[in-house]
Design goal:
By secondary structure, the chain is of the alpha+beta class. The chain has three domains: 2-271, BirA Bifunctional Protein, domain 2 (2-Layer Sandwich); 288-388, Rossmann fold (3-Layer(aba) Sandwich), CATH 3.40.50.800; 408-477, C-terminal domain of ProRS (Translation Initiation Factor IF3, 2-Layer Sandwich), CATH 3.30.110.30. The protein contains 14 helices and 25 strands. An eleven-stranded mixed sheet has the order 3-7-8-14-11-10-9-22-25-21-20, with helices on both faces. A five-stranded mixed sheet has the order 16-15-17-18-19, with helices on both faces. Helix 2 (39-58) crosses helix 6. The longest helix is centred in the C-terminal third of the chain and has 26 residues, at 380-405.
Protein backbone atom coordinates (compact mmCIF):
# COMPACT_ATOMS: atom_id res chain seq x y z
CA UNK A 1 0.00 0.00 0.00
CA UNK A 2 2.72 2.48 0.97
CA UNK A 3 4.28 2.08 -2.49
CA UNK A 4 1.21 3.87 -3.87
CA UNK A 5 2.09 6.99 -1.91
CA UNK A 6 4.63 9.62 -2.95
CA UNK A 7 6.96 10.38 -0.01
CA UNK A 8 6.06 13.61 1.79
CA UNK A 9 9.61 14.91 1.48
CA UNK A 10 9.58 14.38 -2.28
CA UNK A 11 6.28 16.07 -3.19
CA UNK A 12 3.91 17.08 -0.40
CA UNK A 13 0.99 17.89 -2.69
CA UNK A 14 1.30 14.55 -4.49
CA UNK A 15 1.60 12.75 -1.13
CA UNK A 16 -1.65 14.35 0.02
CA UNK A 17 -3.57 13.38 -3.12
CA UNK A 18 -2.16 9.86 -3.02
CA UNK A 19 -3.19 9.36 0.60
CA UNK A 20 -6.75 10.60 0.04
CA UNK A 21 -7.26 8.05 -2.71
CA UNK A 22 -5.17 5.15 -1.38
CA UNK A 23 -6.92 5.40 2.01
CA UNK A 24 -10.26 5.25 0.19
CA UNK A 25 -11.52 8.59 1.50
CA UNK A 26 -12.66 10.26 -1.71
CA UNK A 27 -12.45 10.25 -5.49
CA UNK A 28 -12.78 12.77 -8.27
CA UNK A 29 -16.28 13.42 -9.62
CA UNK A 30 -17.03 13.89 -13.34
CA UNK A 31 -17.74 17.61 -12.70
CA UNK A 32 -14.54 19.63 -12.42
CA UNK A 33 -13.69 20.54 -8.84
CA UNK A 34 -16.26 18.21 -7.25
CA UNK A 35 -15.56 15.07 -5.25
CA UNK A 36 -17.21 11.84 -4.28
CA UNK A 37 -16.79 11.19 -0.57
CA UNK A 38 -16.45 7.43 -0.19
CA UNK A 39 -17.89 5.51 2.80
CA UNK A 40 -14.69 5.58 4.86
CA UNK A 41 -14.26 9.32 4.31
CA UNK A 42 -17.93 9.94 5.04
CA UNK A 43 -17.71 7.94 8.27
CA UNK A 44 -14.91 10.28 9.34
CA UNK A 45 -17.13 13.27 8.48
CA UNK A 46 -20.01 11.72 10.46
CA UNK A 47 -17.77 11.53 13.53
CA UNK A 48 -16.78 15.18 13.04
CA UNK A 49 -20.47 16.04 12.70
CA UNK A 50 -21.40 14.18 15.86
CA UNK A 51 -18.66 15.81 17.95
CA UNK A 52 -19.61 19.29 16.76
CA UNK A 53 -23.37 18.76 16.86
CA UNK A 54 -23.14 17.68 20.49
CA UNK A 55 -21.28 20.88 21.32
CA UNK A 56 -23.76 23.03 19.41
CA UNK A 57 -26.71 21.57 21.27
CA UNK A 58 -24.94 21.91 24.59
CA UNK A 59 -24.69 25.64 23.89
CA UNK A 60 -28.40 25.95 23.11
CA UNK A 61 -28.44 25.67 19.32
CA UNK A 62 -30.98 23.72 17.25
CA UNK A 63 -30.76 22.38 13.70
CA UNK A 64 -32.91 23.46 10.77
CA UNK A 65 -32.66 23.50 6.98
CA UNK A 66 -32.92 26.34 4.44
CA UNK A 67 -33.19 26.18 0.62
CA UNK A 68 -30.34 25.46 -1.77
CA UNK A 69 -31.52 28.15 -4.22
CA UNK A 70 -31.31 31.84 -3.32
CA UNK A 71 -32.88 34.66 -5.38
CA UNK A 72 -30.15 36.86 -6.83
CA UNK A 73 -31.97 39.92 -5.48
CA UNK A 74 -31.26 38.63 -1.94
CA UNK A 75 -27.52 38.57 -2.55
CA UNK A 76 -27.60 42.11 -3.95
CA UNK A 77 -29.16 43.50 -0.78
CA UNK A 78 -25.84 43.45 1.10
CA UNK A 79 -23.35 45.16 -1.20
CA UNK A 80 -20.10 43.95 0.38
CA UNK A 81 -21.47 40.39 0.58
CA UNK A 82 -22.41 40.12 -3.09
CA UNK A 83 -19.14 41.73 -4.16
CA UNK A 84 -17.18 39.20 -2.11
CA UNK A 85 -18.98 36.17 -3.48
CA UNK A 86 -19.69 37.27 -7.07
CA UNK A 87 -16.61 35.56 -8.59
CA UNK A 88 -17.57 32.22 -6.99
CA UNK A 89 -21.31 32.11 -7.73
CA UNK A 90 -23.04 29.36 -9.69
CA UNK A 91 -26.29 30.77 -11.10
CA UNK A 92 -29.37 28.94 -12.39
CA UNK A 93 -31.14 30.79 -15.22
CA UNK A 94 -33.42 28.03 -16.58
CA UNK A 95 -35.72 25.51 -14.91
CA UNK A 96 -38.36 23.17 -16.28
CA UNK A 97 -37.31 24.04 -19.80
CA UNK A 98 -38.06 27.74 -19.34
CA UNK A 99 -36.03 30.81 -18.52
CA UNK A 100 -36.57 31.90 -14.91
CA UNK A 101 -38.03 35.31 -14.16
CA UNK A 102 -35.23 35.82 -11.65
CA UNK A 103 -31.90 33.96 -11.68
CA UNK A 104 -31.19 31.81 -8.64
CA UNK A 105 -27.79 31.50 -6.98
CA UNK A 106 -26.80 28.04 -5.83
CA UNK A 107 -26.12 28.55 -2.14
CA UNK A 108 -22.53 29.80 -1.51
CA UNK A 109 -23.52 30.53 2.12
CA UNK A 110 -26.89 31.23 3.70
CA UNK A 111 -26.78 34.63 5.42
CA UNK A 112 -29.18 36.16 2.88
CA UNK A 113 -31.88 33.47 2.74
CA UNK A 114 -31.77 33.08 6.52
CA UNK A 115 -31.86 36.85 6.99
CA UNK A 116 -35.03 36.95 4.88
CA UNK A 117 -36.66 34.25 7.03
CA UNK A 118 -35.55 35.78 10.33
CA UNK A 119 -37.28 39.01 9.29
CA UNK A 120 -40.54 37.02 9.11
CA UNK A 121 -40.01 35.26 12.43
CA UNK A 122 -38.67 38.01 14.68
CA UNK A 123 -41.11 40.64 15.96
CA UNK A 124 -40.34 41.16 19.65
CA UNK A 125 -37.36 40.95 21.96
CA UNK A 126 -39.14 37.89 23.34
CA UNK A 127 -38.38 36.08 20.05
CA UNK A 128 -34.64 36.47 20.65
CA UNK A 129 -32.13 35.01 20.61
CA UNK A 130 -32.55 32.67 17.62
CA UNK A 131 -29.79 30.07 17.66
CA UNK A 132 -29.96 27.91 14.51
CA UNK A 133 -27.44 25.67 12.77
CA UNK A 134 -27.79 23.76 9.56
CA UNK A 135 -25.82 20.87 8.04
CA UNK A 136 -25.72 21.20 4.27
CA UNK A 137 -23.60 21.62 1.17
CA UNK A 138 -22.61 24.85 -0.57
CA UNK A 139 -21.21 25.65 -4.00
CA UNK A 140 -18.37 28.07 -4.70
CA UNK A 141 -16.91 28.02 -8.21
CA UNK A 142 -13.26 27.63 -7.25
CA UNK A 143 -10.56 27.97 -9.90
CA UNK A 144 -8.03 25.75 -8.13
CA UNK A 145 -9.40 22.73 -6.34
CA UNK A 146 -8.02 19.94 -4.17
CA UNK A 147 -9.91 17.07 -2.56
CA UNK A 148 -11.40 18.15 0.80
CA UNK A 149 -9.30 21.32 1.01
CA UNK A 150 -11.00 23.37 -1.69
CA UNK A 151 -13.78 21.94 -3.83
CA UNK A 152 -16.57 23.45 -5.90
CA UNK A 153 -19.16 21.77 -3.69
CA UNK A 154 -18.39 20.93 -0.09
CA UNK A 155 -20.17 19.84 3.06
CA UNK A 156 -20.25 21.96 6.17
CA UNK A 157 -22.31 23.33 8.98
CA UNK A 158 -23.29 26.96 9.15
CA UNK A 159 -24.68 28.51 12.28
CA UNK A 160 -26.76 31.68 12.08
CA UNK A 161 -27.94 33.53 15.17
CA UNK A 162 -29.85 36.73 15.93
CA UNK A 163 -29.65 38.70 19.20
CA UNK A 164 -31.20 41.69 20.90
CA UNK A 165 -27.91 43.37 21.79
CA UNK A 166 -24.46 43.89 20.34
CA UNK A 167 -22.87 42.42 23.46
CA UNK A 168 -24.84 39.17 23.14
CA UNK A 169 -23.89 38.79 19.48
CA UNK A 170 -20.20 39.38 20.19
CA UNK A 171 -20.33 36.85 23.03
CA UNK A 172 -21.91 34.34 20.65
CA UNK A 173 -19.21 34.93 18.05
CA UNK A 174 -16.50 34.34 20.63
CA UNK A 175 -18.32 31.37 22.18
CA UNK A 176 -18.50 29.52 18.87
CA UNK A 177 -14.86 30.24 18.14
CA UNK A 178 -14.18 28.59 21.49
CA UNK A 179 -16.32 25.60 20.50
CA UNK A 180 -14.25 25.14 17.34
CA UNK A 181 -11.02 25.50 19.27
CA UNK A 182 -12.14 22.89 21.81
CA UNK A 183 -13.16 20.50 19.04
CA UNK A 184 -9.87 20.92 17.18
CA UNK A 185 -7.74 20.28 20.26
CA UNK A 186 -9.76 17.55 21.94
CA UNK A 187 -11.21 15.62 18.99
CA UNK A 188 -8.96 16.26 15.99
CA UNK A 189 -5.76 16.62 18.09
CA UNK A 190 -4.93 19.77 16.10
CA UNK A 191 -3.49 22.68 18.11
CA UNK A 192 -5.17 25.60 16.36
CA UNK A 193 -4.52 29.27 16.98
CA UNK A 194 -7.74 31.26 17.56
CA UNK A 195 -7.52 34.81 16.30
CA UNK A 196 -9.16 37.71 14.50
CA UNK A 197 -8.90 38.18 10.75
CA UNK A 198 -7.57 41.38 9.24
CA UNK A 199 -9.93 43.73 7.40
CA UNK A 200 -8.56 42.37 4.13
CA UNK A 201 -9.25 38.76 5.07
CA UNK A 202 -12.59 39.07 6.88
CA UNK A 203 -15.84 37.52 5.61
CA UNK A 204 -17.70 39.62 3.05
CA UNK A 205 -20.33 41.61 4.95
CA UNK A 206 -18.99 40.99 8.45
CA UNK A 207 -17.97 43.59 11.00
CA UNK A 208 -15.32 41.20 12.36
CA UNK A 209 -14.22 37.67 11.48
CA UNK A 210 -12.50 35.19 13.76
CA UNK A 211 -10.64 32.04 12.76
CA UNK A 212 -8.86 28.97 14.00
CA UNK A 213 -5.59 28.55 12.11
CA UNK A 214 -3.79 25.21 11.98
CA UNK A 215 -0.28 24.35 10.84
CA UNK A 216 -0.04 21.53 8.33
CA UNK A 217 2.82 19.06 8.07
CA UNK A 218 4.62 21.21 5.49
CA UNK A 219 4.39 24.37 7.61
CA UNK A 220 1.54 25.91 5.62
CA UNK A 221 -1.57 27.26 7.33
CA UNK A 222 -5.14 26.03 7.02
CA UNK A 223 -8.13 28.12 8.02
CA UNK A 224 -10.01 25.35 9.81
CA UNK A 225 -13.13 27.19 10.99
CA UNK A 226 -14.51 30.72 11.17
CA UNK A 227 -16.90 32.73 13.33
CA UNK A 228 -18.27 36.09 12.17
CA UNK A 229 -19.78 39.03 14.01
CA UNK A 230 -22.12 40.51 11.40
CA UNK A 231 -23.24 43.49 13.45
CA UNK A 232 -26.47 44.89 12.02
CA UNK A 233 -25.35 44.75 8.37
CA UNK A 234 -27.60 41.87 7.33
CA UNK A 235 -30.36 42.93 9.74
CA UNK A 236 -30.60 46.30 7.99
CA UNK A 237 -30.42 44.72 4.55
CA UNK A 238 -33.25 42.30 5.33
CA UNK A 239 -35.25 44.38 7.81
CA UNK A 240 -34.73 42.06 10.78
CA UNK A 241 -36.36 44.34 13.36
CA UNK A 242 -38.01 43.82 16.72
CA UNK A 243 -39.79 45.76 19.41
CA UNK A 244 -37.54 46.10 22.45
CA UNK A 245 -38.59 46.32 26.12
CA UNK A 246 -39.32 50.04 25.63
CA UNK A 247 -41.65 49.24 22.73
CA UNK A 248 -39.22 50.76 20.22
CA UNK A 249 -38.07 49.16 16.98
CA UNK A 250 -34.47 47.95 16.89
CA UNK A 251 -32.41 46.08 14.34
CA UNK A 252 -31.19 42.66 15.47
CA UNK A 253 -27.52 41.81 15.84
CA UNK A 254 -26.47 38.68 13.94
CA UNK A 255 -23.63 36.16 13.70
CA UNK A 256 -22.63 33.27 11.48
CA UNK A 257 -20.03 30.54 11.88
CA UNK A 258 -18.94 27.45 9.92
CA UNK A 259 -16.62 24.46 9.71
CA UNK A 260 -16.41 22.24 6.65
CA UNK A 261 -15.03 19.01 5.19
CA UNK A 262 -11.70 20.79 4.78
CA UNK A 263 -11.18 19.71 8.41
CA UNK A 264 -10.65 16.21 6.99
CA UNK A 265 -7.85 17.58 4.84
CA UNK A 266 -6.40 19.21 7.93
CA UNK A 267 -6.42 15.94 9.87
CA UNK A 268 -4.66 14.19 6.99
CA UNK A 269 -1.92 16.83 6.71
CA UNK A 270 -1.32 17.36 10.42
CA UNK A 271 -1.01 13.71 11.39
CA UNK A 272 -0.31 11.65 8.23
CA UNK A 273 3.01 10.06 7.28
CA UNK A 274 4.56 8.17 4.37
CA UNK A 275 2.53 5.06 5.27
CA UNK A 276 -0.74 6.98 4.91
CA UNK A 277 -3.31 8.30 7.36
CA UNK A 278 -2.81 8.61 11.09
CA UNK A 279 -6.22 9.25 12.63
CA UNK A 280 -6.94 10.57 16.12
CA UNK A 281 -8.87 7.83 17.96
CA UNK A 282 -11.81 10.04 18.90
CA UNK A 283 -12.65 10.65 15.23
CA UNK A 284 -11.38 7.45 13.59
CA UNK A 285 -14.20 5.47 11.91
CA UNK A 286 -12.46 2.31 13.12
CA UNK A 287 -10.49 2.69 16.34
CA UNK A 288 -9.20 -0.87 16.57
CA UNK A 289 -8.71 -3.53 13.91
CA UNK A 290 -8.15 -7.17 14.86
CA UNK A 291 -5.94 -9.17 12.50
CA UNK A 292 -6.02 -12.95 13.15
CA UNK A 293 -3.00 -14.98 12.01
CA UNK A 294 -3.05 -18.72 11.30
CA UNK A 295 -1.45 -21.35 9.05
CA UNK A 296 -3.82 -24.33 9.16
CA UNK A 297 -7.44 -25.18 9.90
CA UNK A 298 -6.81 -26.10 13.52
CA UNK A 299 -5.06 -22.79 14.18
CA UNK A 300 -7.75 -20.95 12.21
CA UNK A 301 -10.52 -22.25 14.47
CA UNK A 302 -8.74 -21.31 17.68
CA UNK A 303 -7.50 -17.93 16.48
CA UNK A 304 -10.81 -16.86 14.97
CA UNK A 305 -12.65 -17.90 18.11
CA UNK A 306 -10.34 -15.79 20.26
CA UNK A 307 -10.54 -12.89 17.81
CA UNK A 308 -14.34 -12.92 17.82
CA UNK A 309 -14.35 -12.92 21.62
CA UNK A 310 -12.01 -9.90 21.66
CA UNK A 311 -14.21 -8.09 19.15
CA UNK A 312 -17.31 -8.68 21.27
CA UNK A 313 -15.55 -7.50 24.43
CA UNK A 314 -14.29 -4.30 22.83
CA UNK A 315 -17.60 -3.57 21.12
CA UNK A 316 -19.40 -3.95 24.45
CA UNK A 317 -16.91 -1.45 25.91
CA UNK A 318 -17.92 1.12 23.28
CA UNK A 319 -14.85 0.75 21.05
CA UNK A 320 -15.33 1.03 17.27
CA UNK A 321 -13.71 -2.27 16.31
CA UNK A 322 -13.34 -4.29 13.10
CA UNK A 323 -12.32 -7.95 12.77
CA UNK A 324 -10.46 -8.43 9.50
CA UNK A 325 -11.13 -12.10 8.77
CA UNK A 326 -10.64 -11.80 5.01
CA UNK A 327 -8.97 -15.02 3.91
CA UNK A 328 -7.87 -13.86 0.46
CA UNK A 329 -5.28 -11.49 1.92
CA UNK A 330 -2.13 -12.16 3.94
CA UNK A 331 -1.59 -10.67 7.41
CA UNK A 332 1.15 -8.44 5.96
CA UNK A 333 -1.24 -7.03 3.36
CA UNK A 334 -3.80 -6.35 6.08
CA UNK A 335 -1.23 -4.59 8.26
CA UNK A 336 -0.33 -2.24 5.41
CA UNK A 337 -3.98 -1.75 4.42
CA UNK A 338 -5.07 -0.63 7.87
CA UNK A 339 -1.95 1.47 8.36
CA UNK A 340 -2.83 3.31 5.15
CA UNK A 341 -6.32 3.92 6.53
CA UNK A 342 -4.89 5.30 9.75
CA UNK A 343 -6.59 2.93 12.21
CA UNK A 344 -5.10 4.00 15.58
CA UNK A 345 -4.61 0.54 17.08
CA UNK A 346 -4.09 -2.93 15.61
CA UNK A 347 -4.53 -6.14 17.59
CA UNK A 348 -2.67 -9.19 16.30
CA UNK A 349 -3.71 -12.64 17.48
CA UNK A 350 -1.84 -15.79 16.46
CA UNK A 351 -1.85 -19.37 17.78
CA UNK A 352 0.95 -18.64 20.28
CA UNK A 353 -1.01 -15.67 21.60
CA UNK A 354 -4.08 -17.86 22.06
CA UNK A 355 -2.00 -20.40 23.96
CA UNK A 356 -0.55 -17.69 26.21
CA UNK A 357 -3.92 -15.93 26.62
CA UNK A 358 -2.50 -12.68 25.27
CA UNK A 359 -2.66 -10.36 22.25
CA UNK A 360 -0.25 -7.99 20.52
CA UNK A 361 -1.13 -4.28 20.43
CA UNK A 362 0.44 -2.22 17.60
CA UNK A 363 0.08 1.58 17.72
CA UNK A 364 -0.29 3.39 14.39
CA UNK A 365 1.43 6.52 15.72
CA UNK A 366 4.60 4.63 16.70
CA UNK A 367 5.94 2.56 13.77
CA UNK A 368 7.79 -0.72 14.03
CA UNK A 369 8.66 -2.72 17.12
CA UNK A 370 8.62 0.33 19.39
CA UNK A 371 4.88 0.64 18.97
CA UNK A 372 4.13 -3.00 19.83
CA UNK A 373 3.43 -4.60 23.17
CA UNK A 374 2.12 -7.93 24.47
CA UNK A 375 -0.97 -7.57 26.63
CA UNK A 376 -2.79 -10.18 28.70
CA UNK A 377 -6.37 -10.98 27.69
CA UNK A 378 -7.65 -10.21 31.15
CA UNK A 379 -8.69 -6.58 31.36
CA UNK A 380 -8.02 -6.05 27.64
CA UNK A 381 -10.85 -3.56 27.13
CA UNK A 382 -9.45 -1.26 29.82
CA UNK A 383 -5.97 -1.56 28.34
CA UNK A 384 -7.23 -0.76 24.83
CA UNK A 385 -9.22 2.23 26.07
CA UNK A 386 -6.17 3.57 27.90
CA UNK A 387 -3.97 3.04 24.85
CA UNK A 388 -6.40 4.90 22.58
CA UNK A 389 -6.36 7.81 25.01
CA UNK A 390 -2.55 7.73 25.05
CA UNK A 391 -2.50 7.85 21.24
CA UNK A 392 -4.91 10.80 21.22
CA UNK A 393 -2.70 12.71 23.66
CA UNK A 394 0.50 11.78 21.83
CA UNK A 395 -0.82 13.05 18.51
CA UNK A 396 -1.76 16.39 20.04
CA UNK A 397 1.58 16.70 21.82
CA UNK A 398 3.45 15.90 18.61
CA UNK A 399 1.43 18.47 16.64
CA UNK A 400 2.06 21.13 19.29
CA UNK A 401 5.79 20.40 19.25
CA UNK A 402 5.86 20.62 15.45
CA UNK A 403 3.98 23.91 15.41
CA UNK A 404 6.22 25.42 18.08
CA UNK A 405 9.38 24.29 16.30
CA UNK A 406 8.16 25.85 13.05
CA UNK A 407 6.96 29.18 14.43
CA UNK A 408 9.54 31.92 13.93
CA UNK A 409 10.07 35.58 14.78
CA UNK A 410 11.07 38.21 12.24
CA UNK A 411 12.28 41.70 13.12
CA UNK A 412 12.31 43.10 9.57
CA UNK A 413 11.05 42.30 6.10
CA UNK A 414 14.38 40.95 4.83
CA UNK A 415 14.54 38.50 7.72
CA UNK A 416 10.86 37.63 7.15
CA UNK A 417 11.52 36.71 3.51
CA UNK A 418 14.65 34.73 4.32
CA UNK A 419 12.90 32.66 7.01
CA UNK A 420 9.91 32.07 4.77
CA UNK A 421 12.09 30.78 1.93
CA UNK A 422 14.54 28.70 3.98
CA UNK A 423 12.37 27.41 6.83
CA UNK A 424 8.72 28.20 6.12
CA UNK A 425 6.18 27.75 8.88
CA UNK A 426 4.40 30.50 10.81
CA UNK A 427 5.98 33.92 11.20
CA UNK A 428 4.85 35.67 14.36
CA UNK A 429 5.53 39.38 14.01
CA UNK A 430 4.57 42.83 15.21
CA UNK A 431 2.24 44.40 12.65
CA UNK A 432 1.10 47.95 11.93
CA UNK A 433 0.62 47.63 8.19
CA UNK A 434 -2.37 48.27 5.93
CA UNK A 435 -4.44 46.08 3.62
CA UNK A 436 -2.30 47.41 0.76
CA UNK A 437 0.81 46.26 2.63
CA UNK A 438 -0.78 42.81 2.94
CA UNK A 439 -1.38 42.82 -0.83
CA UNK A 440 2.28 43.58 -1.53
CA UNK A 441 3.55 40.96 0.90
CA UNK A 442 1.33 38.30 -0.66
CA UNK A 443 2.40 39.28 -4.16
CA UNK A 444 6.08 39.14 -3.25
CA UNK A 445 6.12 36.12 -0.90
CA UNK A 446 2.77 34.27 -1.32
CA UNK A 447 2.29 34.63 2.45
CA UNK A 448 -0.91 36.07 3.93
CA UNK A 449 -1.84 37.47 7.30
CA UNK A 450 -3.59 34.50 8.86
CA UNK A 451 -4.84 36.16 12.06
CA UNK A 452 -4.17 38.39 15.02
CA UNK A 453 -3.94 35.72 17.75
CA UNK A 454 -6.21 36.35 20.71
CA UNK A 455 -3.45 35.35 23.11
CA UNK A 456 -0.61 37.72 22.22
CA UNK A 457 1.45 38.61 25.34
CA UNK A 458 4.53 39.98 23.57
CA UNK A 459 3.86 43.64 24.30
CA UNK A 460 4.95 46.56 22.14
CA UNK A 461 7.50 46.39 19.36
CA UNK A 462 8.25 47.65 15.87
CA UNK A 463 6.30 46.41 12.87
CA UNK A 464 8.56 44.20 10.78
CA UNK A 465 7.26 45.83 7.58
CA UNK A 466 6.57 49.51 8.34
CA UNK A 467 8.85 50.07 11.33
CA UNK A 468 6.04 51.70 13.29
CA UNK A 469 5.67 50.89 16.97
CA UNK A 470 2.66 48.68 17.78
CA UNK A 471 1.33 46.20 20.29
CA UNK A 472 -0.48 44.16 17.61
CA UNK A 473 0.85 40.68 16.89
CA UNK A 474 0.11 38.94 13.60
CA UNK A 475 0.80 35.52 12.16
CA UNK A 476 1.78 35.27 8.51
CA UNK A 477 2.12 32.05 6.53
CA UNK A 478 1.59 30.50 3.16
CA UNK A 479 -1.79 28.87 3.23
CA UNK A 480 -4.23 26.50 1.54
Amino acid sequence: MADKVTPRSQDYAAWYNDVVQAADLADYAPVRGCMVIKPYGYALWENIQAALDRRFKETGHVNAYFPLFIPMSFLRKEAEHVEGFAPELAVVTHGGGEELEEPLAVRPTSETIIGHMYAQWIHSYRDLPILINQWNSVVRWEKRTRLFLRTTEFLWQEGHTAHATEREAIEETERMLGVYTDFAYNEAAIPVIPGRKSEREKFAGAVASYTIEAMMGNGWALQAGTSHFLGQNFARAFEIKFLDVNNEFQYAWTTSWGLSTRMIGGIIMVHGDDQGLVLPPRLAPIQVVIVPIWKNEEERTAVLGASQAVRAELSDAGVRVRLDDREQFSPGFKFNDWEMRGVPLRIEIGPKDVAKDQVVLARRDIPGREGKQFVARGGLAAQVTATLQAIQEALLARAIAFRNANTHRAENYAQFREILETQGGFLRVHWAGSSEDEDRIQEETKATLRCFPLDAPEGRGRCFYTGQETDRIAIFARAY
